[in-house]
Amino acid sequence: MTIAYLNGDYAPLADVRISPMDRGFLFGDGVYEVIPCYDGNMVAMQYHLERLHQSLQGIALSQPESDAQLTSILSEVVARNGAGNLGIYLQITRGVVAKREHAFPEHPLPTIFAYAFDISPPSDGSPETASCFRAVTRQDQRWGRCHIKSTALLGNVLHMMEAVEEDAEEVLLFNDQDELTEAAACNVFVVCGDKILTPELDHQKLPGVTRRQCLELLETHTDWTVEIRPVSRDEVLSASEIWLSSSTKELAPVVSVDGKPVNEGRPGARWSAAQKLFQQHRFSSP
Ligand SMILES: Cc1ncc(COP(=O)(O)O)c(C=O)c1O
């Protein structure tokens, strides 16, 4: 039985209720984090809190509890859910209002919700344990504030369905200049020749915690050339490897794009080496 947290109380998830007048429900007026946890230990908590601060700032909502209090709430959620391999979901919305009005309420009473879901431990870097993704490509049609980890994810959901409709699991998105932004639920790395490329951060991409960890691991533990710069559609389509990064997947290889195999449809050697670094060092991030 999953135990959730809502505004001060812990209860079985199935019994937790929120008001339909919560602005999270009415407007998607909230932000969230997903923190992976293995054997009861949360990964990169400090990085997740830093991004939460940025997201809250992006929607002009004051953090309703201190970092220490939020950490203690999430630790309690971990403990009450068996302290195993879990994704910890934390959502903060602008809370319940008396009237449905677009403008912010003068004195918001934010809603804090957290729950845990089971996750599989990520790959150890061997091709046998890789979660391989087939991807399609699309023009990025989401909004201009993708750097905020907003609960308003309809744009991402609709793009993900474009992948599902083509029997794929992710969608690689390109901006008006035909440069890679990210995927519907992941950041993207591309191996071109002997270089690892990933787009620079801006309002078209979420600043992924796993992207940040990956860049730090590659910098510290390899002599690979990593370039953070615009990545063209041609570079993506001719890449020898493409990796997706996200907290619950760490690095996952893309094995086909628009039906054409990448690296002959198999996880690549660079992916394997990079994912092995996560296996060894995932808890070294603050
Ligand atoms: C749109 C989008 N980009 C990137 C990511 C990866 O972020 P993180 O590595 O922090 O999980 C996610 C994760 O959910 C996402 O939804």
Structure description:
It is built from 7 helices and 15 strands. It is globular, with a radius of gyration of 19 Å. It is 27% helix and 28% strand. Strand 10 (187-192) and strand 11 form a beta hairpin. The model has no long low-confidence stretch (mean pLDDT 98). The strands form 2 sheets. Strands 7, 8, 9, 10, 11, 12, 13, 14 and 15 form a 9-stranded mixed sheet that branches. Strands 2-1-6-5-3-4 form a 6-stranded antiparallel sheet. Helix 5 crosses helix 7. By secondary structure, it is an alpha+beta fold. The chain folds into 2 domains: 3-118, D-amino Acid Aminotransferase, Chain A, domain 1; 127-284, D-amino Acid Aminotransferase, subunit A, domain 2 (D-amino Acid Aminotransferase, Chain A, domain 2). Residues 156, 182, 185-187, 206, 208-211, 245-247 line the site of pyridoxal-5'-phosphate.
Topology:
Elements: E1 3-6, E2 9-12, H1 23-27, E3 30-38, E4 41-42, H2 45-58, H3 67-80, E5 86-93, E6 111-118, E7 133-139, H4 154-165, E8 170-174, E9 180-183, E10 187-192, E11 195-198, H5 209-221, E12 225-228, H6 233-237, E13 241-246, E14 250-257, E15 260-261, H7 269-281
Parallel strand pairs: 7-8, 7-14, 11-12
Antiparallel strand pairs: 1-2, 1-6, 3-4, 3-5, 5-6, 8-9, 10-11, 10-13, 13-14, 14-15
